[in-house]
Amino acid sequence: MGVFAALDVSQDETAICVVDGDGMILGEAKVPTCPDAIVRWLRDRFDNLERIGMETGPLAVWLWNALTERDLPIVCLDARRAEDDAEQDGPA
Fold it and tell me: Which CATH number fits the domain that encloses residue 68?
């Protein structure tokens, strides 16, 4: 089973949280907002990353491109859009 990561990106630091398919936290860290630092932390610990998510923001295009070039399975989510989609789908 794969694992999933979420990035909370700010100008100086990126918080990383990695969970398994059941939502159990497997790892958390804060690293510099630098593609190489993010990749290094993730690849040193997890070889089965299925998906990495981050929210849209001022650094999203730059970071998405940099992580994609480094072959990470990154997706960018617009929180407002995700909320709209969830409301349309109804309760889980």
Answer: 3.30.420.40
Q: Residues 51-90: pLDDT tens digits? A: 999 998 889 999 999 999 999 999 998 876 655 554 544 4
Structural domain harbouring 70: 3-89
The count of domains in the chain is 1
Listed in sequence order, the residues at least 6 apart from 3 whose beta carbon sits closer than 8 Å to its beta carbon are: 18, 19, 20, 21, 26, 46, 48, 49, 50
d(CA 87, CA 79): 12
Nearest in space to 42 (alpha carbons), one of 20, 1, 72, 8: 72
Q: Which pTM value belongs to this model?
A: 0.82
